[in-house]
Amino acid sequence: MLKGLFNASKKYQRMTTILAVGDDHDDLRLLTNTLEISGYRVYAVDDVATAVSLLTEVEMPDLFIADFRNPEVDGTEFIRRLNVRYGKASLAPVIFLLDSVEDEQVAHAMGVKDIIAKPVNVEALLQCVKSAVAQS
Question: By the number of CB atoms within 10 A of the CB, which of 18, 43, 76, 128 ranks highest?
Fold first, then answer.
């Protein structure tokens, strides 16, 4: 009756976690749905304060995806807050969603893992996430 329920040859594989931060609910919903369907665990929040607070309740995610131009806090300040609280060495890679070329230059200067232009292309998103997770 229980035959096949447990397969000793399969190793437990922890689900990759992503913290997505953005004020655009449509973008956040697209990110969440796309990534969850692709097998990632996604914590989606609409502001930086909630993201930082959530990090006290869950393990450090494997990846951050954040909107660079958030009305409350821009990407530069988001990274600064995370570095101050958790230290640069322990911080997971960050991918920013960008609106402009100027944002791209600033993001790369900050050492951001990768960028995704808005509007979000699902294939580009998945490739970027897969690459970032593989390299972390």
Answer: 18
Closest of 11, 61, 58 to residue 35, by C-alpha: 61
Angle of the 122-135 helix axis to the 25-37 helix axis, nearest 10: 60
Answer yes or no: CATH 3.40.50.2300 is held by domain 17-135: yes
Question: What is the rounded distance in angstroms from the CA atom of residue 136 to the CA atom of residue 131?
Answer: 9
Neighbours of 36 (CB within 10 A): 13
Extract the tokens encoding 6.
């447990």
**Are the CB atoms for 72 and 49 separated by under 8 Å?**
yes
Residues in the chain: 136
Per-residue pLDDT reduced to its tens digit, 2-28: 555 555 445 557 899 999 999 899 999
Q: Which of 3-12, 15-24, 63-72, 80-89 has the highest mean pLDDT?
A: 15-24
Q: Note the pTM of the prediction, 2 decimals.
A: 0.85
